[in-house]
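Comment thread on ticket #2218

A.B. wrote:
> Attaching the input chain for the structure job we discussed in standup.
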Amino acid sequence: MVLVTVLALLAAAAAVGYVTLDRSIKTFDGRGISRHRPPPTVHGQNLLLIGSDSRAVGDRALGGRGKVVGRSDTTLLVHIYEGGRRAVAVSIPRDALVTVPACRLPDGTWSKPQHQVMFNEAFAVGDTRAGNPACTLNTVERLTGLRVDHTVVADFVGFAAMTRIVGGVPVCVPQDVYQGDLDPNRPTQGRLVFHRGVQKVSGARALDYVRLRHGVGDGSDIGRMRRQQAFIGAVITKVRREGLTPTKLLPLARAATENLTVDASLGSAEKLLSFVLGLRHMAPEDLVFVTTPWRYDGARVALVHPDVDQLWTALANDQPLSADGGRPARVRRAVSGWLSTVTAPVTVQASAARPALAQRTARALDALGLHASAGPATGAGLRSRVDYGPGQRDQALALATAVVGTRVRQVPAPGLRLVLGRQHRVRDAGAVVTDAPGRLPSSLTDGARSAATAPCTNVSYGG
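C.D. wrote:
> Ran it. Output below, let me know if you need it in another format.
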């Protein structure tokens, strides 16, 4: 819901003059961002989107009863690929058990780290009405190993206003939902709230939909996340494909800026406009939604390793996901064909216990047309690895086809370095490899959807 706001702001700012919107933009205190952060993003950008469910003041009128402590209802880590033409939005389950690192409290002191707590607890650290976006940022960076370049928090008041301005959004409900489904304590079934199938929602009714949990599928937060992904996709698709009239642009821009809280990197209308200019060519089918690989851990959710680690590695490497199910494009090519694309010099290294191995492998690669040479002995893990410098990801993936099970890792220094593992098997030059290395696990890709996916496709879990 935030991404469409930012995209719409581009047109609105250009139409009405973004200087008039500056007074509405709020920023959160950057002093709460940890000093111990992952290295800067090399390729693309990472945007953290937090949907705030404080139910305080205006939010409470829309959301019903509840505490006035800020809560994160929805969290998406959006990786925008280099060039700004495609992105992947990763939903992190609010009930996922994670480590929340030390976070700054309202009095200036820092909390103690918390282990095996629900992910959404990070936003509530400090028990303030505005929530603690810096703590969520710290938690995401610790969880993923990725630097968060920008952070945006959207509250329910702005969300409701924006859905009304765009004229409603088509959504799909897998089954009829009654008042009794939404409130387990209600003694009667009550009236029909959502009928089965496609319907248009806006305002408070749109809020009811994105927060809908009980009465659909197994009532889990996983199912709700899938419906939220479908909803955000529907909003983006409508705005991009139908456009907005000039009379709607200014109200949309105002609703966005008045109800967003951002970090300092986006703390003015000019900065927001600059950011969005880089996204103007992104089509709905080029935004893919996925969910972190997960499993139930009692009443909570545990993230599945190593699947989730492969996801973070893919984003760090700027590895794309296709819009037709999240899988990299399938390509069948002989190892020699993959290696023909490697033009950078290659250094081959092995453990000190096998000094001749690096030399033999370097000669074999050299015979296939690579500029390969043996390097000094080094520590070697069980699996082989290709280290690559900035801008050399594709060559690293191609080089990795030469050895079974090889993973890739980006490092600051330029060049390609093949580190042979203790257990390795070099492929024959004529062996055919299907797909580039680094293919993501089915636990991640099976539930992927693009913003252009039909509203009723895969919108529940356990149903």
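A.B. wrote:
> Thanks. Noting for the ticket: The chain has 15 helices and 23 strands.
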